[in-house]
Design goal:
The chain has 236 residues and is of the alpha+beta class. It is built from ten helices and six strands. The chain has a four-stranded mixed β-sheet. Strands 2-6 form a two-stranded antiparallel ribbon.
Amino acid sequence: MFRKCATELIFLPLILPDVDKILYLDTDVVFLRPPEDLFDLFPSFDDKQMISMTVVGWRYPTKGIPIFKGGLNSGVVLMDLEKIRKPEIDWMNRTLSIVDEFQTKLELGDQDILNVYLNRHPEQIYQMPCSWNFRFGHCTMGGKGRFQCPPARTDGISLIHGNTGTFHLDTFMKFKTVYDTFINFNLTTQQPSELVQILDINLQWVDSDSSLKSPCSAFEDFNDMMMWWPKKVLLP
């Protein structure tokens, strides 16, 4: 199994019996847009849809398991716990049976379990826009000059996900710069509008130094995608 507690998400309907809906996040994410906007996707679910995740968009790493389409990423998950707890869904029995069936192949814990489950119950997923779970692969996995998250070009990047340690790698400086900018910003002494200016300057700094590596720099409008929501939300 991927990590200790990597299957915690599966047990949330039981752990939180009085909660109807939840947003589950990996710890390596940075919101560029208000989180409540993501929660507002729930009304878009139809009667059967109860989970929302983004499609990976490139080759899924775990082999030997059935997956939903090209695979789903569990770094950002909306769950309608009220629907999941319905007796006819039989959530715990069905998910735990997947663990029993594929236990030697579930390299990514809850993500693999959810992929197998939603492969078998595709009517239960509402596909989350990739802009709400933007990963380095959106810049690198499409081949040269091919951007993997078109919605981000029209609506901006809402959340950046530093999976596989991307926030701490000098080979992905745009991601690292966003993380460092947020982690070093002091809300007790600085105004929110200052964050926009600092982030903009820092992203331009990456572009100005050819020694700094960032695959996302290949896309001229990438900074605009990153700055879209901070400017819209934080500037007067």
